[in-house]
Amino acid sequence: MSAQEAWTLLIADGVGTAPPAIRPNLERLAMLDNVPRKEKQFRNFAANSLSMRRSEAEEMAGEIWKHLSQLREEQKKANEDGRKKQEAEAEAEAKASKAEAVKEEAKRGEGVEGSSSSSSSESSEGGDSRSESRRVSIAMTKLLKEAPRKKMKVSKLGKKVKKELLLKRKKKEMKVLLKQIIAASKSGMKIDGKRVILID
């Protein structure tokens, strides 16, 4: 909308809120085209367009201008308030989106941290061979006690220990680890061919 169109619309809207003394003359102005937007030109244009004595017409033009100026200020303020409200809403929305993004990022970070801490604990656990050997030795003893004649094939025992302790070792690695533990003098186990026997 052009500035002139907005001004014409303001004049038309101003008729409804105009004081009774100026309303009929404002109605007449609202029906005219190209009403000037600046005060001096407006006063001259209005005074010439109103069918009354020159002095009265000038006074009436002044009153009409005063009314329209007040309306224009109110409209300007309302537009400004509306713009500020929109800006505030947009800013609040942007902040909320940013906060949500930060929250999501933090959640993802926690997941990564959690998985890295768990993997680091696993690796430290794997690195601490004495702790792992002790756990494997206990599991082997328990499984052999439950086995018929307290005997079990090395490969089968390795598989069961791996499953019970949820170890991430390969089959060959498990075999080597089991043999190392059995070879220890205090293990209470010995190898007989391909079998492991628990010694009472």
SSE diagram, text form:
Layout: H1 3-17, H2 23-30, H3 39-49, H4 54-127, H5 129-146, E1 151-153, H6 154-165, H7 171-183, E2 189-192, E3 195-198
Antiparallel strand pairs: 1-3, 2-3
Helix pairs in contact: 1-2, 3-4, 5-6, 5-7, 6-7
List keywords for this structure.
76% helix; 2 domains; 200 residues; three-stranded antiparallel β-sheet; single chain; mainly alpha
Helix content: over 70%
Shape: rod-shaped
The arrangement of helices and strands along the chain is HHHHHEHHEE
Q: Please, how many helices?
A: 7
Catalogue the unreliable spans: 115-126
From the alpha-carbon coordinates, what is the Rg to the nearest angstrom? Answer: 47 Å
Strand order of the largest sheet: 1-3-2
In this structure, how is the largest beta sheet organized?
3 strands, antiparallel
What class, by secondary structure content? mainly alpha
* Straight-line N-to-C gap: 101 Å
Number of strands: 3
Beta percentage is 5-15%
Give the total of domains: 2
Taking all residues together, what is the mean pLDDT? 82
What can you tell me about this protein's structure?
By secondary structure, the chain is mainly alpha-helical. The chain is 76% helix and 6% strand. Strand 2 (189-192) and strand 3 (195-198) form a beta hairpin. Mean pLDDT is 82; it is low at 115-126.
